[in-house]
Structure formats: C-alpha cells, structure tokens
Amino acid sequence: SDGIKFGSDTAAANALDDYEEGNYDISLTGSGGGTIDLQGTINNLRYTKIGRMVHVIGRIYINGSTNPSGTARMNLPFTAAANSNDQNGQGYSYVTRYNIYTPNSDWALIFEIEPNQSNGFFLWDKPSAAWDGVNAATELNQSAGYLGFDFTYTTA
Fold this sequence. Notes:
Layout: E1 19-25, E2 28-30, E3 33-38, E4 44-50, E5 53-69, E6 72-75, E7 91-94, E8 96-98, E9 108-113, E10 119-125, E11 132-133, E12 145-154
Antiparallel strand pairs: 1-4, 2-3, 2-6, 3-5, 4-5, 5-12, 6-10, 7-9, 8-12, 9-10, 10-11
C-alpha cells in the first residue's frame, strides 16, 4: 500500500505513509569537540513525525561540560531534508532559556537546522547585525540552566 490518500488524489507521492511518536536523547556538543552535560532525567525531547514533517518539543537541563569548543550544536531525531530551491531547507526557531548566559540583553537565542544534517546549531540573533554562533565553551557552558524547544522541520 502507498499509505493514506485524501480526496480524489491517487498519486503515491502524495500519500501519507509515515507516522511516528517518540522521545530522543539529546547530545549537546561543540562543533570542535567536547560535550555539554545534561541532567539524566531532563535530557530528552519529544517528537512527532507525520510524513516528512517532524515537530520537536520539550526542555533540557544543562549541568556542566567536558571541554566543548566551537559553535554549540544539538542532534535531531532525523536528518533534515536537503535544499530543493535556494535555501528552503533551512529551519530556525527561537529557544527559551532560564539561567543561560547572554552576551547582551537584546540578543535572542535561536536554533538553526541545516539541510542534510543530523544536528542543528545555536546562534545569537543580534539586532541590526549578522547572526553569530554560540560559543560552546563560554556561552553555553552552564550549570543549572534550562533550554526550551518547540520547532518543526522537514526530514530527508
């Protein structure tokens, strides 16, 4: 079977052929190596996958680190889709935070999903300036901090 088809559409390419719910364990690392440690009971996010769309929600608790370096990144439950036209595979979401370092009070923390990748990067959204990667060693290397997520992306 091709999956569920709606209305008079008979094309297999348009059939809903996948549904999945679950939790996945988070890995926070630096792009240059090292890890950001999470509390064992608050270290996973929930996802729902419908067709190629994946929705992720939840919060995690940072409690230390093991020498992270480079830009902070986090794994995804599924590899993101490739760009099909210019940069339409990119995904962005603001991240809520508690007790997390912010270099400037008007900077917002965002999570960027890159095409064809199994992880995303943390960036600072700076007013009237280019975005900047979040330094894993000095800006996300926290203790007793929470990050909250609610984002959707397209999977490969």
